[in-house]
Amino acid sequence: MSWINRVRNALPFAAPKRDTPDNLWIKCPSCGEMLFTKEYEDNQSVCPRCDHHGRIGADARLAQLMDPGFVLLPAPKVKEDPLKFRDTKKYVDRIKGARAANPHPDALTNAVGRIEGKKAVVGVQEFAFMGGSMGMAVGNAFIAGTERAIREKCPYIAVTAAGGARMQEGILSLMQMPRSTVAISRLHAAGLPYIVVLTDPTTGGVTASYAMLGDIQIAEPGALIGFAGQRVIQDTIREKLPEGFQRAEYLHAHGMIDMVVHRHSLRATLAETIDYLMAAKAA
Amino acid sequence: MISYLEFEKPVAALEARIAELRDTAAASGELDIAAEIRRLETKSAELLANTYRALSPWQKTQVARHPARPHFRDYVERMFTGFMPLGGDRLFGEDQAIIGGFARLGNRRVMLIGHEKGNDTQSRIRHNFGMGKPEGYRKAVRLMEMASRFGLPVVTLVDTSGAFPGVEAEERGQAEAIARSTEACLALGVPMVATIVGEGGSGGAVALASAERVLMLEHAVYSVISPEGCASILWRTAEKAPEAAEAMKVTAQDLLALGVIDRIVPEPVGGAHRDPAATCTALAAAIGEELDHLAGKNADALRALRAERFLRIGA
Asked: Does A123 lie in the same domain as A31?
């Protein structure tokens, strides 16, 4: 940019009017194709050229999966910053920043409603919120979601996306592994299904707890799913990782998930799954 | 020969001086040297006690990882009798990083499961440095379920830097194996007492520590990620590990205050490695007491106790 443009752009009254908003185009992170944002979003944030499944937030996800009229559940109150954690930045400031940039107060949002007419509570993890990381808020939301499902006598569906545990909550984040597992066992004790939809990326303590305990395990194409991070593994074995390692298709080939389902078919697949799992209860 | 940690250098210097004087005394038989030795011994013991009373979280991490710290096999030898190791997950293989089997603690018959790190190069490799693979966690599930069927309480000794991060472990479902092991702990119809004896590293530790009573040795550490790992992610350098250890609250004392653990088992002055026998006596007594408290509770009551214990944490 020349100095004259720089000066002109710094002056609000002199800056050139833009005919087009910034986000009219979007570049597919996989194939690099330039796509109309509108077209891309109308296609559920799946690249029409290479079928790459983009990361989406809780609101978009819920709108894609649930029938209109679903209701968001309130975010459970939790003790904020229980360890008074500070790294290069205070944890409270990191949360503030994440809240300013995201529509929901933490990384897991529940909604109750219907999927093609079938009742369900759906919890969606927001990767954009501190990497979807699991702390007290996520754990409590997960528990609240399963409790609501038990009251509604319907399945709980978790759509996961997380780097893992929220380190700024230390051991309390780790404790969400047994806590969420308790919640799942209560759902099972009530005879209700727990369905997991693994989306890109799902790793660490989230994978090693509620993301792997579904009656049915569904993953989106290409989603990165694993326990250890790829860099950690590479540092341990000092070899090149195999092609497609820790991707949804790789997990399917190794027997870790039931199916890999295209985003366009996800809603119908969930509805059909619920239909089977709830058939005996409905009769 | 004791291997000294960095912060034990002053103690090491004193103890070296004492040893030197002893050699001189043995040679000459002079009395005034004996007095000097006693004086130095008192000083050294005080210094050691003071050092260990005020260990920082990072220093505790080093004590917890001390090469001479008692490991699973030491506890088996000193605390239990009649240990009968049971092998394999019946699915893939036998993982020596996680060991389990029947054992007697006093007159109590239990299922004993724990991580073994190994104590020399050969055994460390055999035990994969205490980093469990999916087959290890699946073996733990198998043994826990059997214990539950036959009414044997489960005792676990947790000591791992974490579950193994490797291609094969991922391929065979490391995450699922850990999740199932946690689930198996929570579903037990028999009493379960877990103790973090060294390092309680992340999911690999939780998978064997989701018990209704969780104990910790005085200088053990328990955390969501290693201080080095946390530092390299949040501070972008592993050198900030001491700060990360401090911030994450990894010590038994912090975790008791947070309600994450239920009881601290005191270690001898200078850490478990200075007196493994005393450590084992204290731990055996503590676990025995906990088991006796839990005896007579039925399966549903135990499951409820466990569930409520975890749901309460942080609330």
From this structure: no
Per-residue confidence (pLDDT) for residue A134, from 0 to 100: 97
Structurally, chain A folds into a number of domains equal to: 2
- The domain limits of chain B are 6-54, 61-312
CATH of domain B61-312: 3.90.226.10
Model confidence at A9, pLDDT cuts 50, 70, 90, reads low
Restricting to B residues 163-192, those with a Cβ less than 8 Å away from any Cβ of A are 163-167, 169-176, 178-180, 182-183, 185-187
Residue A108 belongs to some domain of the structure = yes
Q: B235 CB near a chain A CB, below 8 Å?
A: yes
Q: Which chain B residues contact residue A255 at CB under 8 A?
A: 173
Of the candidates B123, B145, B121, B132, the residue with the CA atom closest to the CA atom of residue B94:
B132
Rounded CA separation A186/A147 (Å): 8
In the DSSP assignment, the letter for residue B260 is S
Residue-wise pLDDT for B184-205, tens only, equals: 999 999 999 999 999 999 999 9
Contacts of B182 in chain A (CB under 8 A): 177-178, 181, 208-209
Pairing of strands B154-160, B221-223: unpaired
A25 at interface of B, judged by CB pairs closer than 8 A: no
Tell the burial category of A241 from Cβ atoms under 10 Å away from its Cβ (0-12, 13-18, 19+): middle
Residue B254: phi, psi to the nearest 5? Answer: -65, -40
Phi/psi at A115 (nearest 5 deg)?
A: -120, 110
In-domain check, residue A12: no
| Bridge pairing between strands A156-162 and A118-125 | parallel
| Domain region containing A79 | 53-282
Query: What is the pLDDT tens value at each position of chain B, 315 positions in all?
Result: 678 999 999 999 999 999 988 888 777 766 678 888 889 999 999 999 999 999 999 999 999 999 999 999 999 999 999 999 999 999 999 999 999 999 999 999 999 999 999 999 999 999 999 999 999 999 999 999 999 999 999 999 999 999 999 999 999 999 999 999 999 999 999 999 999 999 999 999 999 999 999 999 999 999 999 999 999 999 999 999 999 999 999 999 999 999 999 999 999 999 999 999 999 999 999 999 999 999 999 999 999 999 999 999 987
Query: Are A136 and B314 an interchain contact pair (Cβ–Cβ within 8 Å)?
Result: yes
Q: How far is CA B244 from the centre of its chain?
A: 20
Residue B30 is encoded by which pair of tokens? 């002079």
One domain, residues A157 and A39: no
